[in-house]
Design goal:
EC 1.5.1.25; seven-stranded mixed beta sheet; ODC_Mu_crystall; 2 domains; binds ligand LZCNNONV; hormone binding; eight-stranded parallel beta sheet; Rossmann fold; binds NADPH dihydro-nicotinamide-adenine-dinucleotide phosphate; alpha/beta; 15 strands; ODC_N; globular; about 325 residues; EC 1.5.1.1; ornithine cyclodeaminase, domain 1
């Protein structure tokens, strides 16, 4: 079975995806032996900027194995291209090949939302909550999509290095959302109003420092996945007001520029927060929470399972 970009978009529902993501993140952080995920390989190509990535994992509890093979060519659109392959872990049969662009986009934004729910649930109870998205490429767009499908924000601010990209995104949403405003630069004081910020850029220099955000803000830092990339400044990473959570400690220490360069302490993995209300409730409202993701194979596995099982159900009807 092959699912193209359009099929993935139409059939990968967020609600079951969030459930399966929570389960695999929880089991990953518990070192559940039925879930195996080695470190992914990132093979740089010539100039060190482009890369071939391979992300495998096996989930014998659910009976699936998954491998995503993608290229990352920042600057050539789409920057990410490739496929996700899902197999049966009991008999080795290939079950599904799906477009990796759409799976990567949606599962990454869904993970950011899951982190926001766990670390900033108080913000999602506030009807005046403000969302800011930095970077209006594929990830910025899908973060806007997912974050507005799952929550009603009072105000949304968009910024992109190339302002036209932010204008285009605002305009594409104009029939659905009339509360989007543009930020012309990152010194704009309106960033200080943000309750949740998603940084979705391929930047190599910090875009956000401590003085640009308010106490109690939650940040999903999505963009960096190399030691040389970063979106957040050292003072933000190292402040005594900041709690840093990552998707995987092993991956973050190898791939997350902010963590490697600042040497910030990682307080926990996202999976450790699931079913741990004590930890989440214990984070003071004044704490800045940062969820730094680099991306993991189990996220693609979760998306491929949800998609495959839904498509099977449709076939059987
Ligand atoms: N954590 C995870 O799981 C995942 C992380 N990623 C990473 O997220 C980032 C965004 O991916 P994606 O949206 O697919 O890529 P796109 O190529 O679609 O978009 C790139 C974005 O980065 C911005 N950008 C690039 N360079 C700079 C810079 N020096 N300063 C500020 N902004 C910059 C661009 O701004 P503009 O267009 O306005 O110039 C654009 O908004 C990438 O680094 C990607 O590798 C991707 C998938 C999963
Ligand atoms: O997890 C992924 O998939 C990716 N992570 C970093 C950038 C490329 C895609």
């Amino acid at each position: 079975m092959y699912s193209d970009e359009f099929t993935v978009k139409e059939n990968l529902s967020l609600s079951p995806l969030l459930e399966v993501l929570a389960d695999v993140f929880h089991r990953y952080s518990k070192h559940d032996p039925s879930l195996e995920q080695p470190l992914r390989s990132i093979l740089p190509i010539n100039d060190q900027q482009n890369a071939l990535l391979n992300l495998p994992c096996i989930d014998t509890q659910r009976g699936y194995m998954c491998v995503k093979t993608i290229t990352s060519f920042p600057g050539i659109l789409p920057a990410i291209d490739g496929v996700v392959s899902l197999f049966n872990s009991n008999n080795g049969r290939l079950l599904l090949i799906a477009d990796a662009k759409e799976i990567t986009a949606r599962r990454t934004a869904a993970v950011s939302f899951l982190a926001t729910k766990l670390l900033a649930s108080n913000k999602l109870k506030n009807e005046n909550a403000v969302l800011t998205i930095l970077g209006c490429g594929v990830q910025g767009r899908v973060h806007l999509d997912v974050f507005t499908e799952l929550f009603k924000w009072n105000k949304i601010y968009l910024w992109s290095r190339n302002m036209t990209h932010a204008i285009n995104l605002q305009s594409d949403y104009s029939s659905k959302l009339n509360n989007i405003e543009l930020l012309e630069n990152l010194n704009d004081n309106r960033i200080l109003q943000s309750d949740v910020i998603c940084t979705c850029t391929a930047s190599k220099e910090a875009l956000l420092s401590l003085h640009q955000v308010k106490k109690g803000v939650h940040i999903n830092a999505v963009g960096s996945f190399r030691a040389t990339m970063r979106e957040l400044a050292d003072d933000l990473m190292l402040s005594s007001d900041t709690t840093v959570i990552v998707d995987s400690k092993e991956s973050a220490m190898k791939e997350a520029g902010e963590i490697i360069q600042s040497k910030a302490e990682i307080v926990a993995e996202l999976g450790e927060l699931i079913e741990n209300n004590e930890f989440c409730d214990g984070i003071s409202k004044d704490k800045i929470t940062i969820f730094k993701s680099v991306g993991m194979a189990i996220e693609d596995l979760a998306a491929a399972i949800v998609l495959y099982e839904y498509l099977q159900e449709c076939r059987e009807k």
